[in-house]
Amino acid sequence: MIKPFFKENAGWYATYLGVVFLFFLNFWLYHLPLVYFANALALNLVVLVVISLWRYFLFRKKMLALAHFVYDSELEDFTSPSDLAYRTAIAKLRHAANRKELDATSQKHNLESLIKMWAHQMKVPLSAISLMAQTNQLTPEETKRQVLRLENYLDTLLNYVKFNQHQDDFRFEKVSARKVVAEVVKKYRTACLAKNLSVTITGDTTFKTDRKWLSFALSQIFDNAVKYSHNNAQIRITITETQVTVSDDGIGILEEDLPRLFDEGFTGFNGHEHQKATGLGLYMTKQVLDKLDFSIKVTSRIAKGTDVTISSKQRP
């Protein structure tokens, strides 16, 4: 530990030697008796050794404390301005590390809860397929519908994990809103036929955005419209220069649920009542649209239907 001590204090010892040399030079140039210089130097060396031993003791104590300290209180003996600054920096680093660890633990807990919830949700279509197979009521159309539900649940889960790990996975290009909407509607064709829903698409525009993630967001919105629409109803998709609106005449959303629709894990009254919601679709939709520079607005009335509008924040 002696070598690190001299390395840290090398500047001071170099300064001391420089001052000694200047004093010697003055004595020599002015032909002063060097015996006085020697006496003064001896006294200074004694003082230097004593101070060095004291500083080495403090240095060693500090190094040992830093090498083995666990709690910040163990550094309270070091009160110089630089030591206080170091202690403050250490406290900030510890706070940041604790917060990061807490976030990681929370994220892990949320992911575990999500997987458990998803496992429960995926049992529903699997149980339906199993029951139909056991009762010889398994039809191609119903099988496709249940498989589509499974695919949607799995896609949402995988996209959720991917989005949380790689939030910069975006490739912006000019995209036709009508083409993206048409692809989404085609994807849900079986579900629409099962409920005899008619879908109309009006208008078109071009957005500079990420096609894949915009399709994901619109899929979540359209999926909700299909879920909560009555049989033989209509879903209207209206595209303007800066907006895409998905309207249905379904069961609607309670007014008190509207402010919390985009909270993670929130299912609301409809989700509990109809056991169709996972509480993640609209949360992810909001997160994705924020990254794509879109806003989302939901208006609804019970038994009257719901309008979901996404608006580009970019200037047309």
From TrEMBL:
Gene3D superfamilies: Histidine kinase-like ATPase, C-terminal domain
Catalytic activity reported: ATP + protein L-histidine = ADP + protein N-phospho-L-histidine
Localization in the cell: Cell membrane
Enzyme Commission numbers on file: 2.7.13.3
Enzyme class label: transferase
Protein source organism: Streptococcus hyointestinalis
Database matches in InterPro entries: BphY/WalK/GraS-like, HATPase_C_sf, HATPase_dom, His_kinase_dom, HisK_dim/P_dom
GO molecular function: phosphoprotein phosphatase activity; phosphorelay sensor kinase activity
Protein name: histidine kinase
Residue spans crossing the bilayer: 12-30, 36-58
Key words, A-Z: Cell membrane, Kinase, Membrane, Transferase, Transmembrane, Transmembrane helix, Two-component regulatory system
Major subcellular site: membrane
Keyword match Kinase: yes
Bilayer topology term: Multi-pass membrane protein
Top-level taxon of the source organism: Bacteria
CDD domains from the UniProt entry: HisKA
Histidine kinase domain sequence ranges: 117-316
Gene Ontology BP annotations: cellular response to phosphate starvation
GO cellular component: plasma membrane
